[in-house]
Write a structure and sequence with these properties.
Layout (H helix, E strand, L loop, with lengths): L3 H15 L4 E6 L10 H8 L8 E3 L2 E5 L6 E5 L4 E6 L8 E7 L4 E6 L5 E5 L6 H5 L11 H8 L6 H5 L10 H11 L12 H20 L39 E6 L2 E6 L5
Antiparallel strand pairs: 1-6, 2-3, 3-4, 4-8, 5-7, 6-7, 9-10
Helix pairs in contact: 1-7, 6-7
The chain binds a DNA duplex through α6.
Length: 272
Amino acid sequence: MPELPEVETIARDLRGLLIGASIRDVRVRDGRVVRGMTPPAFRRKLRGRVIADVFRRGKAIIFPFAGSPEYLVVQLMMTGQLIAGASSLPQKDSRIIFSLSSGGFLHYNDQRLFGRLQIVKDLSELKYFQILGPEPLTKDFNAGWIERLLSRRKAPIKSVLMDHTFVAGIGNIYASEILFESGIDPRRPASSLNKEEYRILLKKITGVLRRAIKQRGTSMNNYRDSAGQKGGFMKSIKVYGRENEKCPRCSAKIQRLVQSGRSTFFCEGCQN
DNA sequence: AGGTCGACCTGGCAGC
DNA sequence: TGCTGCCAGGTCGACC
């Protein structure tokens, strides 16, 4: 479900709520979301741990523990949620319930069970982090990187924007929105863009993601923040999910097409 | 090697 | 109402 702005929103909120809290107990209601160890081992490893920080890398939320070399890594995938609350009663699709020293609870909810929770000693144990590209809102992601990577990719620019070895955190919604804002046709081979278009793309990637974080993300469907609230960026969404609606810029009909098995939304009138 | 596809799951919704 | 088929914000291994 969530892309960079949604995961960043959750991580920032949880940082305020959970730093310094200890995990009193862990109830695994569906073990399929725990990877790399059995649910009992997962519970044993987490009980008594003090949460030292909460941060995001790509679309993963990472919890380091005080005085421990281990991390809890949570990947929400399509429908995962981390919801903090006062009740231990299972919510819809609660798969894991953490009880905290504060008296509160953290629910890991996941309708489709694609999400995963893992405990690792080093983040580089996970292939996901080994191959993950630069964070788009840091100086590692710059015009030089974009040009070097894109100039040798023949795949459609939409597919490459979603390739997390090129840039971390962009998913299906923001790929369409970024290309619309950039005025670039999603079907064009990445290598066909010119220097000016690379420059525009960099500007729009950072601009769209920053605005989406400010608005606390986009809730098309399942996304909820750690308080269970929807994101505010929906009202800023120009093309995603708007097939046959009017383009807000030129009034042409917004089109949908499928690229690498994922829906892309764009305006043929103003993206070329 | 780069690119695309299916698998992993559940559930909501449109159409009949 | 109930069935079928399609669709959904991600990732990864298999295949060409």
